[in-house]
Amino acid sequence: MKKQEDNLMDKIISLAKRRGFIFPGSEIYGGLANSYDYGPLGTELFRNIQNLWWKKIVQERPDMVGIRGPIIMNAKVWEASGHVKNFTDPLVECKICHVRMRADKLKDIAEHEKTHAGKKVEWTEAKNFNLLFKTFIGTTEDSKSTVYLRGETAQTMFTDFKLVLETMRKKLPFGIAQIGRSFRNEITTGNLIFRTKEFTIAELEYFVKPGEDDKAYEEWLDYQQDFFVKDLKLKQENIKKVELPKDELAHYSKRTVDTYYNFPFGWDEIAGIANRTDYDLKNHIDMSGANLKVKDEESQTEYIPYVVEPTFGLDRIMLAVLIDAYSESEARSGKEDAVHETEVTLRLSKELAPIKIAILPLSRKDELIKPAEKILQQLHKHWMCQYDETASIGKRYRRQDEIGTPYCVTVDFETVNDQAVTVRDRDTMKQDRVKISDLMDYFREKLPC
Ligand SMILES: [Zn+2]
Asked: pLDDT tens, 64-101?
C-alpha cells in the first residue's frame, strides 16, 4: 500500500515544487514558516477544485446563492460570534527553550521532549491564546481602531442573512455559500499546505426552521460525501466520517461530523459539518438590534432560523487530491530515453487537471511548428493548453504525465501530408489519429467545457 510509504509525503513535496504546483512562501528571504505560494499549476488545480465546488454547491442547487464578503469586518461581529472570547487554543510553554505547544497535542509534546534528551522537561500551566489576528484601521494603534482578520467566512452569511433573503426573494430552507481566505494565529506543524495560518475555506450556511435541522444535517452529510467521492473522485477507501464527541464541540455547535482523509502522515480533517443552531443569528440580534427573524407564514409568528454549516478546507482538499492522484509505474512509456526506472503519473480527473491538452511538435522544423501553433491558438480558447517543443517526445510525454495532463497532441512529419495529428491518452496510452479539422469535436466529447 502506497499510503504506508514514509516518503510519499516527501515525493509529493518535491513534485509540487519541481513542477510548479506549490512553492515555499517568501523563499528568497529564507521563507516564512508554513507559508506557501501556489505556482502556475497549483493555481490552476486550485481554481478547478474551487469551480467544481461552486458548481455543485451553488449553480446546481436552486436553494443556494453565493456571496463574497471582506476579510476585515466590524470588530463587533467577532464579539457577537464569540470569537473574541472563545476562539482560543490552550498552550503550554517549555521551560527550557520557551517553545509553545498545544496542550492537547500530547504526541507533539512527547516529540518535543525528546529534543531535550536526558533533561527533565517542565511545562507551564496551560493558558488560552486567542487565534484571531489583530490589526489596526487608521494610522494610530489605539484600541478603538482594533480590527480582526476573519477567523472564518461564516459570519458574513449571518450578517447578510436578511439582505440576501429579501433581495433574492428566498424562502426557507435556503443557503448562502462563500469561498474565501480565513486567518488563524495557531501553532502550525508542517505537512506542506495542511495547516497554515491563512487558508481558503469554502462553506455554506443552510437556514432552516428549528426542528428541521436534523434532517437538513443528514442530507448535507450525504451531499458532502458525494462531493468527495463522485465529484472530486477521491478514492472511497481514503475518506471517512468522524463524529465529534460532545466535549470536543466548538462553542457554537450542537453536532459536528468531520470528514477525514488518509494522508501519509495519518488520517486528518479536510471538511466538517456543524449544526450551529440559532447561536449566531441570536447573538447578532442581541448585539446589533437588527431583526434577523423570519416570519412563519402559517402561524404568522416570528422565529430565529437554525443553521447547518458544511465547511470544506480547500487547501487541504488540494493536498488530498494530489496524494490521491499520485501513482508510480515502471518505465511504461518505453525505453527510448534509457534510464528511467520509475515514472510518475498524476491521475487527476479531467475536471481537475491543470492542463487539459499538451501540444507537442515532433521537431522544431517550421513545417511542424506552424500547424502546432495554429492548433494551440484554436484549442486554448476552450481549454488550458501547454505548448512544448523541447526535449525528446518520450521525455515530453512523461513531463505531461507527471502534471496529470489527460491528452497530448503530437504534430509529426505525416501531419504535413494527412492534415492529422496523434492524440495520446494519459491513462490508456492509446493513440488516436485525428484530423486537425475534427480536433475541436474530438475534445468536446472528451473534456469538460
Ligand atoms: Zn523545549
From this structure: 999 999 999 999 999 999 999 888 889 999 999 988 88
Tell me the CA–centroid distance for residue 90 and ligand 1, in Å. 17
Q: Where in the chain is the domain with CATH 3.40.50.800?
A: 346-446
The structure's pTM equals 0.92
CA–centroid distance, 176 to ligand 1, in Å, is 45
Where do you find CATH 3.30.930.10 in the chain? Answer: 2-85+137-322
The CATH number assigned to the domain with range 346-446 reads: 3.40.50.800
HEC readout, the chain: CHHHCCCHHHHHHHHHHHCCCEEECCHHHCCCCCCEEECHHHHHHHHHHHHHHHHHHHHCCCCEEECCCCCECCHHHHHHCCHHHHCEEEEEEECCCCCEEECCCHHHHHHHHHCCCCCCCCECCCEEEECCEEEECCCCCCHHHEEEECCCCHHHHHHCHHHHHHHCCCCCCEEEEEEEEEECCCCCCCCHHHCCCEEEEEEEEEEECCCCHHHHHHHHHHHHHHHHHHHCCCCHHHEEEEECCHHHCCCCCCCEEEEEEEECCEEEEEEEEEEEECHHHHHHHHHHCCCCCEECCCCCCEECCEEEEEEEEHHHHHHHHHHHHEEEEECCCCCCCCCCCEEEEECCCCCCCCCCEEEEECCCCHHHHHHHHHHHHHHCCCCCEEECCCCCHHHHHHHHHHCCCCEEEEECCCHHHHCEEEEEECCCCCEEEEEHHHHHHHHHHHCCC
Interval between CA 3 and ligand 1 midpoint (Å): 31
What is the whole-number distance in angstroms between the Cα of residue 108 and the centre of ligand 1? Answer: 11
Separation of 122 CA from ligand 1 center, angstroms? 9
Domain 2-85+137-322, what fold?
A: BirA Bifunctional Protein; domain 2 (3.30.930)
Q: How do residues 268-292 score in pLDDT, each as one tens digit? A: 999 999 999 999 999 999 999 999 9
CA of 94 relative to ligand 1 center, distance in Å:
5
- CA of residue 34 to ligand 1 center, whole Å: 20
